[in-house]
Give the backbone structure.
Amino acid sequence: MDTDTDLVFKGKDLDLIQSLVYDSSLEPMYCSFRMYLHWPDELPSGITPEGYETLCDLWIARACLYHGITLDQSLDQAVFTRVWDRAIAQGLQWPGFQRLKLSNIDQSYFQKMLNQENPFD
Amino acid sequence: MPNEVRDNSEARAMQPAGREAVSLMPSQQDMTAFWQNLKLAGTTATREQEMFSQGYTFGNLESLYGSSSQLSEVDSRPIKDYGWQVKPHGQDKVIETGVQYLIGQPAKVTEQGLIDRIGALPLDQQAQVIGAGIKAYNGELTHQQFRTGVGAIIGLGDGVLGLAQGAESLGKAIIGVAQFSRDVMENSSQAYSTASQAGESVGKLLVGGVRVYSAAESYLESVGAATNVGDYGKALRDVAWLGQQMNNRWESMSPEEKTKIVTKLAVENLGAIAAGGVIASVAKSTTITEALEDLGQTAKALGAGHHEKYGKLISQLSDAAMPQKGLTTNGFDMPIPEDAGKFEDLAAKMVGRSGEYIPEHKPMFLAPGQNKVLNEREIEAFGGLKKLESMSDGELASVGLRRYEMPKLKLESDEFSLQAKVPGDNRAWFRATVSKDGTLVLSDLNKGSLPDGMGAHLFAEALKAHNLKPTGQIILKNVIEKDTLPALAAGVLPEQTKIGRLVIKGLKELGITPSAIKLVKTDRGFDIVVDLR
């Protein structure tokens, strides 16, 4: 990590992210706007809107890299995976890195959510 | 000379108030003994008249100084002290002494001083004052009758209280609480505007030591809560009811939520150091009304210099615990007590609500054999909403329908975000942030296990629960959903996409019609911008 600008999380957001504790018993939640799974222990209370957007990038990247999601052709997947790579390079301690492979139950739930006729209402 | 004479307690007792008055308060017995021992000429009543040109008697002097509390600011008229001197009186020697109010100086009782006096009374007398205030609010007492009644209860008398600058404010403070209690009970939209007045009034009364809720409870217990026995039974039940609602709401909050609320407000109002003890005691309390009353006692003990900040803290904690919109399940539109319509204020503070919220009643019906609520078109097909509402459960079952109620929501908030969840359904949630310019950014919305068709209702109820009344823009940021992007690319209007329809449907429930919906392409998807201006 050469410069401060390479850090995906800084300051209080970084402290909040690093304070999260992985809990294997939790169930995933589906984000209908962005088609990813996320878990309650991956989102700290009090994170800034900018920090939340970065977390969204990580969730989308994980969905693409590990959970089998393909983005619309109008989108550049690298926008998200670059953030993922930078987070890894930063040495970020984030519970989300421990959920690269989905359990059968979680995979089934993810598919069900993706196949909904109307995931919003 | 006897020590008690040399002590000249009477003269010191009449010094301007606020200086160690507690130890200087003579009892009636002390003063009677004082006069008799000195064998003063004439009757004690005559002597009193000479000394107190305002016409006080021992009776009301005892009442005036009989309490054990500090009487700061009760009466600040200048007093001339004549000192004392020994004079011959027949075969005896007597001491001539005295104090007198300076002529032309009217009695001045400040608002807080008056409230302090009431706070020093026993609970049953506090209840009488509060009850009288509520009766004045109800129009059962005129202002003059209220002043006379309160003057009699607290022992100042109508003459003095009539000059008290705080008398009207006292009435307003009590009425502020009473008005809100009544407005909430009657589901009046007025509660919208009386809520902040109620919180402010509670703070003012409590830092004066007036135990508003305990006094009401105590009075009701003494006369029988289930009856209208007693002059103020009905009036005080209103206040007791409000206290119970606040306690119920407080009890429904998790320890973390309580700690978060108390910590924030205590630090903001008292500073980090002084906040420590308050956070520990209030956050751990199960009965918020008692905790607030205890805070009031603390403020009173600390002195007038602490009243304002403690009063503000109590007011804000009261606001946090006061009944919320949707409290009832009887279909009434329960008013929202705090921050009503102040979207920009909320944006500036970035603080939402925490605790439990019972959504507003809305008639909904589950479709036959499906986990789906009927939409408007389907309701019409069953004969319309009025017909369905009038049908019994059995009649509905005969056509395959069931009533459905939106479950309660659990609200959370932090420095930046507002959330709503459905207890027992970990996957149902709403999350939004409010930017400094008042723009609502909807981060995520998932109906979880709620029936199909409930997403928009969850969106609307979450906004209502957090008292969000967006007036600027709502932004759905970086949408990449698989059906939405191709639809938008194919020229489908944003409002015709599934996500666009959800937002419009939810806003319609709030009575809001967007003026425009536009798309903003970003490197992370589309921002759907709903303009409400």
Summary: Chain B touches chain A at residues 412, 414-417, 426-427, 429, 433, 435, 441, 443-447, 452-456, 476-482, 485-486, 489, 498-499, 501-502, 505, 523-525 (CB under 8 Å). Confidence is low (pLDDT under 50) at residues 1-27, 30-74, 224-229, 325-351 of chain B.
